[in-house]
Design goal:
single chain; 182 residues; five-stranded mixed β-sheet; 39% helix
């Protein structure tokens, strides 16, 4: 009985996923161990790398003790007519964001007349926090947990660098068509 041949592309793809999952886990631990200010700035840098702020926008870190529940503001246009307000919580895995933190963020958004908010944590959200966020202005708050956070950081190259790239080649059958060889 013959075994199916192992596809080297599948092997490389699987190894890449495993390696990057380990990197994401290490990155999450580093973020959890960093200072609150560092984490807040890293989150703002991620959103900026993702394209928030556009060509003429502006990013601003405002987090500090007594910051009123807003850690960062990204102005989407040159005049600041549209802004994204950011809350960043650097929690350990077992400390999940609850509805009280979400209500505080909603209060901070309302006090600024905000229409868009992003709440990012290194841990995760309790179901009550998710329900509270979903009930606010029909999805005006986007929630990003630690798993999604580190996946986005890898995807947008924030706090990571590419260390290796493989190139695999296959024969271009179109090249060997008789009409092509003139």
């Amino acid at each position: 009985m013959e075994e199916d041949p192992v596809d080297p592309v599948d092997i490389l793809a699987s190894a890449e996923r495993a390696f990057n999952a380990q990197t994401e886990t290490r990155l999450r631990k580093r973020l959890q161990g960093a200072s609150a200010e560092f984490f807040e700035r890293a989150v703002i840098d991620l959103l900026w790398a993702m394209g928030y702020g556009g060509e003429h926008g502006e990013k601003k870190h405002v987090g500090r003790s007594g910051d009123g529940g807003i850690d960062g503001i990204i102005r989407q246009d040159a005049l600041g007519l549209t802004s994204v307000y950011v809350q960043a919580k650097r929690y350990c895995e077992t400390n999940k964001v609850g509805s009280s933190e979400m209500r505080n963020f909603i209060g901070a958004l309302d006090s600024r007349g905000a229409t868009q908010g992003v709440f990012i944590t290194t841990s995760s959200f309790l179901p009550s926090a998710i329900k509270t966020a979903e009930g606010y202005r029909h999805g005006a708050i986007v929630l990003v947990d630690g798993i999604k956070l580190t996946a986005l950081m890898l995807a947008y190259g924030v706090a990571v660098r590419k260390v290796c790239e493989f190139m695999l080649y296959e024969i271009d059958d179109d090249f060997f068509e008789e009409d092509e060889l003139v």
